[in-house]
Amino acid sequence: MTMDHLLSVDQFDRDRIDALFALARAAEPVARRRKVCRALEGAVLGNLFFEASTRTRISFAAAFCRLGGAVCDTTGFTFSSMAKGESIHDTSRVISGYVDALVVRHPERGAVAQFAQATHVPVVNGGDGPGEHPSQALLDLYTIGCEFARSGRRVDGAHVALIGDLKYGRTVHSLIKLLSLYRGLRFTLIAPPGLEMPEQLCEAVARRGHHVEARSTLLQRLDELDVAYATRIQRERFSGESIEGYTPEFRVDKSFLDTCCGPQTVLMHPLPRDSAPGAHDLSTDLDTDSRSAIFRQSDSGVAVRMAIFATLLGVERRLQGPLPDAGWRSPQRIGPNDAPFYTLDAASRGWSA
Ligand code: NCD
């Protein structure tokens, strides 16, 4: 598969998703520190983050490094020449003279596409304001497939609840479009009043033959729910709205999962969760519950982003060939609360579409 830039999930169909995820599975032993790959030895990534980020910036960087490349980065406007009035065009063209790929996060919708217009070096959208976050949606879908593989479920026909700030949450904007490439899904969209999913996205998904239902309260039974995907309230994107956000009844916690969902429900969240008092974002009482896939989800970021770089830079074959073992010691399990089935040696988790 050839791809010039990764700007939107609109660039994908099911065949392209399958090709990318086959590569992500090949990347797993490297992402899980069991094998070493030098496919991008000598290559340099420019990681330009003009908005706050922890996992997206670090996992893109880790993915590039695990492919043998090196990373240069800049964070925020303050320390970039944009603070001196430099345009997106000039910034993009200048940095492209130094690096082999760019990952850009920017607070304005469409800004990353403008970076791409000024260069032939591949540009990846690491989040453009409330617009899209395609690599997150890809790793979310990859995680869903991995989780479903354990219980023989398929994405076709799944019931997915998207919960929280569906108006400004770019992760859910990209994810609902990507999931709508599958067949016969049921979406329950649960948002506090004022933070509903944009109408044109709901209509596009319904036109593809999916069932879409919107609700403004959380505590109602969700029949045969396969995925509960919670999101943070994106206060930094509010433009003067007086929206309360999550009230205590909106909190996704163990009691919600036990009473409204089911034993098979996979709990997801793109993270970060807002742990400030009164935020009522995803509760920590689910951290020891193996239905919570939130850290398996964030871990998936490295393999999926390795697959994205391998595709953009044309080194797919190098990732799929035999790879040498890693020579250093690393743990069997990453986190003390990780589910028993989740070890670093379970190198290639299954994937079921
Ligand atoms: C998300 C983002 O930046 O859109 N985080 C992420 O990349 N995993 C979600 C958020 O900030 O709430």
Description:
The structure is a single chain. With 353 residues, this protein is α/β, with parallel strands linked by helices. It has two domains: 143 residues, Rossmann fold; 162 residues, 3-Layer(aba) Sandwich (Rossmann fold), CATH 3.40.50.1370. The chain is 32% helix and 13% strand. The protein contains ten helices and nine strands. It has a five-stranded parallel beta sheet, with helices on one face. Helix 1 crosses helix 9. The two termini are 19 Å apart. N-carbamoyl-L-aspartate binds next to helix 2 and helix 6. The site of N-carbamoyl-L-aspartate (NCD) has 10 residues, from helix 2 and helix 6.
Residue stretches low in confidence (pLDDT < 50, at least 5 long) are none
Strand-residue proportion: 5-15%
Q: What is the string of helix and strand elements?
A: HEHEHEHEHEHEHEEHEHH
Biggest sheet overview: 5 strands, parallel
Q: Give the count of helical stretches.
A: 10
Oligomer classification: single chain
- How many strand units? 9
Q: What is the CATH architecture assignment of the largest domain? A: 3-Layer(aba) Sandwich
Mean pLDDT: 95
Strand arrangement across the biggest beta sheet: 7-6-5-8-9
The Rg value, from CA coordinates, equals 20 Å
What's the name of the CATH homologous superfamily of the largest domain?
A: Aspartate/ornithine carbamoyltransferase
Helix content range: 25-40%
Structural class: alpha/beta
Straight-line distance between termini: 19 Å
Please indicate the count of domains. 2
The outline comes out as globular
Classified by CATH, the class of the largest domain is: Alpha Beta
CATH topology label of the largest domain: Rossmann fold
Bound molecules: N-carbamoyl-L-aspartate
